[in-house]
Design brief:
The protein has helices spanning 14-25, 67-72, 133-142, 156-167, 188-200, 250-254, 302-316, 384-395, 402-406, 412-423, and strands at 2-10, 32-36, 75-79, 83-87, 92-95, 100-108, 112-114, 127-129, 148-152, 171-176, 204-207, 211-216, 224-228, 233-236, 238-241, 245-247, 266-268, 279-281, 286-289, 296-297, 328-333, 336-342, 350-354, 365-371, 374-381. Helix 8 runs parallel beside helix 10. The chain is an alpha/beta fold.
């Protein structure tokens, strides 16, 4: 039986749900169909490595919308189903359930998959990866006081897993191949502070140490043994692997849609258009290439999934493109909320507002990077209100006095309000 939909959204994650919601919010009246491999309603991923692992959040609490929302908005969900081929010329998608869907617009919101390490295959019962809600529930079942957890990876996901496992009472060791934590995403100042923070909480961190061998023996007290590059051996009960994400772009590639060879992301412009007219992409599966610098950016974040979905929705609904917000990212580790605003780069010089004390009872500080009088990147640790005050300065690229902004006694909200008033006189 043939089916037809105005908008076929392939993938049922954050970007897909936000896109469908935005389309209806813009008054789009065409039919919308969302096809997703998982059987769950579309859900948010950030809670998976935090509240879900601690069993402090129910499965339903992570759903982006209740089932009634999709019914009321006339959004059809086809879950537990994948699109195994996409014919861009005939505008048809062939599904794993045998259905064929014709469409006017298609949006690839296929997300990404946890990058699997050959030495730590996901087929091993004691090597766990976290990407889906079901993954989170499997990991949750293994965390309890006293269990020895070996976390492979010192990026954002690895640190969140280590933090949550520690909160459940586990004995945690983090193994990171780079010489510092968050080596690709944060300045050295923050990396060093995080190392101190983790070690002060009793978490062992092994830096500059990749895994050279892995052994699994269910008959031993601690069934996981990892040998590091320097010969050190670690024993544990479970290995949690956080080795990054690979874009789910195979469907796009097989369909003749351009995929970047360096990042494996589906190439899109700022409005989510792919190389094929009428086909769009949004979220973790995409890569944008700056036309001026040829810099490739594949951003894996909650905000980016939302923003790209909004852009695509406006194009399909024939509405003017919304202004792009300043890049924003957040994470929670060891009782500290860390937020980043703007784009960081290795050449930026960061200065501290406040006191960087990794063991203080009340931790709150910011790392700010300026180019002359312009704020380019801001990192707030338990200082979200101050970061929000600086957002409009960065959005409008207004000059400030770095000395005043860096002074902890400055009331940033008042300072920014005055700066904005002066700029618009």
């Amino acid at each position: 039986m043939a089916h037809y939909t105005s908008v076929l959204i392939i993938g049922a994650g954050q970007a897909a749900s936000v896109l469908a919601r935005e389309l209806r919010g813009l008054g789009y009246s065409g039919s919308i169909t969302v096809v997703g491999e998982e059987t769950h309603l579309p859900y948010e991923r950030p809670p998976l490595s935090k509240d879900v692992l601690k069993a402090s959040a129910s499965t339903e609490s992570v759903f982006l919308q209740k089932a009634e929302f999709y019914q009321e908005q006339n959004i059809e969900l086809v879950l537990g189903t994948s699109v195994h081929s996409l014919d861009c010329a005939s505008r048809q998608a062939h599904l794993s359930n045998g259905q064929t869907w014709s469409f006017e617009h298609a949006v690839l919101a296929t997300g990404g998959a946890a990058r699997e390490l050959a030495l730590l295959p996901a087929t091993q019962a004691n090597a766990l990866y976290l990407r889906t809600l079901d993954d989170a529930l499997r990991v949750q079942a293994r965390l309890h006081p006293g269990v020895r957890v070996l976390v492979i990876g010192g990026g954002f996901m690895g640190l969140e897993l280590a933090s949550t496992a520690h909160e459940t009472g586990a004995q945690v060791t983090v193994v990171e191949a780079n010489e510092r934590l968050l080596a690709r995403n944060a300045p050295a100042l923050l990396s060093h502070w995080l190392l101190e923070r983790f070690e002060s909480q009793g978490i062992t961190v092994c830096l500059g140490q990749g895994v050279s061998q892995a052994h699994f023996a269910t008959d031993k007290e601690h069934p996981v043994e990892l040998e590091l590059k320097d010969g050190q051996r670690l024993q544990g009960d479970v290995a949690l692997v956080a080795a990054g994400l690979t874009a789910n772009s195979a469907l796009a590639r097989a369909s003749g849609i351009a995929v970047d060879e360096m990042t494996a992301g589906i190439i899109v412009d700022r409005q989510g258009r792919t190389s094929v007219a009428g086909i769009y992409a949004a979220g973790d599966c995409t890569t944008q290439i700056c036309p001026e610098t040829a810099v490739r950016t594949r951003t894996e974040s909650w905000q980016n999934a939302n923003e790209q979905a909004r852009q695509v929705a406006h194009v399909i609904a024939a509405q003017p493109a919304p202004a792009a917000p300043v890049s924003w990212f957040w994470t929670d580790v060891l009782g500290c909320n860390i937020q980043m605003l703007g784009q960081g780069s290795p050449d930026l010089d960061y200065q501290v507002r406040g006191v960087m004390d990794s063991q203080a009872d009340a931790i709150s500080f910011m790392l700010l990077a300026f180019e002359g009088p312009y704020l380019r990147h801001a990192i707030a640790v338990n200082a979200g209100a101050d970061l929000r005050a600086l957002r409009s300065i960065m959005e409008q690229n207004l000059p400030v006095d770095p000395a005043i902004v860096l002074d902890p006694s400055t009331k940033l909200r008042q300072y920014v309000k005055e700066a904005l008033r002066t700029a618009h006189v």
